[in-house]
Amino acid sequence: MPTLLPNPRCFALPTLAGCVLLGAASCVNVVEAPLPPSESASVPTGFTPEVKMVTDWLTGSFSNHAQAASDPRFREVEVHMTPIWPDRKDGPWLYVEQAVTTALDRPYRQRIYQIGPALAADGSPAVLSMIYSLPGDPLVYAGAWKDPSRFGDVIPGMLTPLEGCGVTLVADGPAAFKGGTEGTNCASTRGGAAYTTSEIHLDATTLETLDRGFSADGTQVWGSEHGPYRFERVQ
Fold it and tell me: Whose CA is closest to 132, among 107, 161, 153, 154?
């Protein structure tokens, strides 16, 4: 991954042990809601063409069904991402829900992502995504990708930013983006890990992610050892 100028928070598409990662609707207008104090100085603003493209490509439902059917080393996972708070000027904001297909009613990962512009080290346009955890029990919002208005009782100031886990995406040719976490800044205690890394490749129809956890001495302790998970857009 390239060296990135902003200090990213996190768009690390998360994992479930060896598994990776990870419909617009009207919502309550919360434009006046304050942002978390720790984030107010670094939150991305603006809706560049790159931000719009990445947001459009992330929005929707994804499955690695074909990959899991052909290779049992990969568990079958569904990912759903939907815009929330469409009237805010510091977005776009996405709700992300991820679950194995055998437990869709109990997603193992629920996050809020904030997408914004950034610059790569060479000065070219890039896209920064920061990740936040939901307040309280996230299972309260399970299935909310079908009805984003359920986030009408949540404002950004209620979210918890996950520091150091940021991902910035840069163009990979005319019709794709690639990116990942930077260094060892994304701390983790899951499965004996000290930090996590994420590598991402995104285009209009597919999302490839490789998320891994490492011990303090750099030994991989969880995550795929067989390459990235390949999610395809589904209806």
Answer: 161
Measure Cα distances from 29 to 12, 26, 32, 110, 163 in Å.
27, 9, 8, 22, 27
Q: Which DSSP letter does residue 182 get? A: -
Separation CA 21–CA 12 (nearest Å): 8
Structure pTM? 0.78
- Residue 79 contacts by C-beta under 8 Å, 6 or more apart in sequence? 21, 22, 61, 62, 63, 96, 97, 98, 207, 231
The CA-CA-CA angle for residues 39, 30, 43, to 5°, reads: 20
**26-to-82, 85, 89, 181 alpha-carbon distances in Å:** 11, 8, 15, 32
| All residues at 6 or more sequence positions from 218 whose CB lies less than 8 Å from its CB, including other chains | none
**CA distance linking residue 117 with residue 210, whole number of Å:** 23
8 Å CB contact between 196 and 214: yes
Q: Which tens digits make up the pLDDT trace of 140-156?
A: 999 999 999 999 999 99
pLDDT tens by residue, 113-148: 999 999 888 889 999 999 899 999 999 999 999 999
Q: Is 39 helix (H, G, I), strand (E, B) or coil?
A: coil
Q: What is the amino acid identity at position 132?
A: Y
Question: How many Å is the maximal CA-CA distance in the chain?
Answer: 49
169 and 200 in contact (C-beta within 8 Å)? yes
CA distance 15 to 21: 5
